[in-house]
Each structure stands twice: as C-alpha cells, then as structure tokens.
Amino acid sequence: MNRFDQNALLDRLAAIGRLELAMMPQLGEAIARFHRAAEPRPDLGGAAGILRVVEGNGAGFAEYGRGFLDQALCRQITTESRAELDRLGALLDGRKTAGFVRQCHGDLHLRNIVLLHGAPVLFDAIEFNDDIACIDVLYDLAFLLMDLWRRDLPRHANAVWNTYLRCTGDLGGLAAMPLLLSCRSAIRAKTSATAAHVQHDEIRAAELRALAQEYVALAARLLHPPPPRLIAVGGLSGTGKSTLALALAPSIGAVPGAVVLRSDEIRKQLCDAQMSERLGPEGYTPELSARVYEAMAARANAVVRSGQSAIVDAVYGRNHEREVIERVANDANVPFAGFWLEAPDAALIARVEARRHDPSDADASTIRLQRAQEMGAIHWTCIDASRAPDAVREGVERWLETLAAGR
C-alpha cells in the first residue's frame, strides 16, 4: 500500500487554512479526466439510485438521530427530496442512458484527495459497492463541492465547479445540482449521527452530534436555492472582465455559485485549440466571432433555464451582441445586469502584455482595434476598472445589491 504524508491530505490543509485557491483548477481538471476515463454503467444510478439514497438517509435520521436531530426538519428534507426526484426523474434517467452514470470515485471529499508533488491526486475510491460508486458524474462531483462549501471555502468550490464544466461541457444536469448537493450533505449527517451512536467517548460523540446537526441544516438549505440571474461583463481587452467574473461567481446564485462563460475559452473550444495556444487570424474572423457569441448566448440560456446563475464575460462591443444576451434573460424571465468596464488604454496594454498562460490572445494592437470600433450607445452600468480588482468587485457587488433591492 502506498504511504504519504497525512498532512498533505486536502482536508488537513483546509483545516489549517493552507488549501490554495490556485490549486483548484488543477483539481477540477483531474476530476474531469477521471470521469472521462471511467466506464459507463447505464445499468445503475439514475432516479432510482438517488431515491435509495434519499430513503436511506431518512431511515438513518430516524434511527440514529433521535434526541439531537430536528426530526421535523429531517422529515422535511426527505419529503422535499422525493418531490425534487419526481420533478427531475426523467432528467436523471436520461443522463443514465446518455452515459453520464459511470464507475465513479463514490467518496470524493477532501479527505480522499492528497497533494503529491504539487498536484492533487484522488485516492481511496469505492470498489466494494457498485450502488455507491456507479453514479452520475455530477453526483460524484457534488460531494467535493458540498465539502468545500461547508468549510466556508466558496471560492474554492466555485473554481473547481467552473473548471470542471469548462473541461466537460456538461451543462445538461445543472437542474439536479441542488438535490445532489443536498443528498451529499444528508449522507454526511446520517454517517455522523451513526458514528455518534456507537462512540463511547462522550466528548467525541458530542462533536459528531453537532456535526450531524450542521449537515442536516445545510441539506435543508441546499434544497431552496435562490432564483437564477444573468450577469454580463463587457469591456475592452485588459479591463479585467475575467478577473471580475470569477471574483463575483461564488456569491451569485445557487451553491456552488454562478457558472462563468468566457468568450476566450469558448473561442478556443470552437477552434479545437488548447487554452494557452495562440490562434492565428482564422480564429478571429467575423464568422467565427459570431459563432462565439451565439454559443455564449445558447450556453447562458441553458444555464439560467436550469435554475443556475450565469456570468458571461466578453467584449460585447456591438449593440447587437449586447441585445442578444439581454434577450436571453428576458426570454427566460430572469433578472439581468450588464456592466461595462472602462480603463485608460495604457493600463489595458500593460495588463494584456503581462499575461501568461491565459486563454486570451489580446495584445496592444487588439486594444487599438477595439477602441476604433463603433460601439453604439452602451446602456450597461459603467465601472471604473482602473482601480484594484477588489475595489472593482466591491463596487459591482454594491450595484447588484441595489438592483436586487429594487432601488
């Protein structure tokens, strides 16, 4: 059996505040690779598999949680989860048929991931129970996302989430995420309650009971996500659109935060290019750029109609492009907010020339071309992007709070 430093386990690193945010994209990519390589198992999973989880959790709450778990809340979780399954059953079964139920990890939380040679490595996958391991890939991912969120690491959870979605393109199961995340928290509540029941050390038993209560409360909250919204971040290259979008995302919408759709990444995907690969002129023809904006709108539409929030990040330098993304929100009947970032050209050029390993190919000449373009009347909220990123984010968050309050 391979041995490694227990202090390199991600749960240990998280506990002492040393789980690096910069590592989360690597982790999202690792999970995406793992799922792509996993064997499809259309004979298991689907709605029936989740129903077994829901019923098992309910039975565990009743048997092991008496006296310290809020039994009315536990019954509410079971009832609401069944109702969600009635609503989502066809979706989950369709994903099973389409190959999204696979031989997954099955126990994908921080304690089963270790940092080796600077990279996150998954280990200790479930091998003894196909009902636990052969599940929807998003249900597998949900365990890690829930674990990060419970530890008050929303930026980490959102970074894993958005990296995974970029790598897989799996937007078809987003509507099920509140249920899947809630089930993962409820499982943790049940296992904590069960462990407390057999624990002879009363101090440790009390800790486990408190943990079970925390997980039950989270499981209940996850079943009631906030309504979706669509946010657009536009502006010339170098204004910090992507930095702002990624900074906003963890606090927007349902757990684990908004889905970020970045035009630079979509362009590379349409060209079948690596994210850091520089495209030639053929990657920037008017025809391809139109396809990029069409794909942005289509994906944003899929996200918000699933109940998740989306943040779209692109130049949006033409009236038509801005009108199309606004129409997505209007047609889906979700709130829209558009922000236009502005900064002096000298600052924009300095920023793009300092980029390394970034999907954007913009340089000084790109900015000059964008500045010369006829942009039309811009009705989005204008933001001074020459300030520090945190100041920009805080300003936009205040605007969003104002819009949400209807002022």
Descriptive report:
With 407 residues, the chain is α/β, with parallel strands linked by helices. It has two domains: 6-222, Aminoglycoside 3'-phosphotransferase, Chain: A, domain 2, CATH 3.90.1200.10; 230-405, P-loop containing nucleotide triphosphate hydrolases (Rossmann fold, 3-Layer(aba) Sandwich), CATH 3.40.50.300. It is built from 16 helices and nine strands. The strands form three sheets. The chain has a five-stranded parallel beta sheet, sandwiched between helices. Helix 4 (71-97) crosses helix 8 (177-198). It is elongated. The model has no long low-confidence stretch (mean pLDDT 95).
Which SSEs are present, and which pair or pack?
Layout: H1 10-15, H2 24-37, H3 46-64, H4 71-97, E1 101-103, E2 113-116, E3 119-122, H5 130-133, E4 134-136, H6 137-150, H7 154-168, H8 177-198, H9 202-222, E5 230-235, H10 241-248, E6 259-262, H11 263-270, H12 286-305, E7 310-313, H13 319-332, E8 336-342, H14 345-354, H15 364-372, E9 381-384, H16 389-405
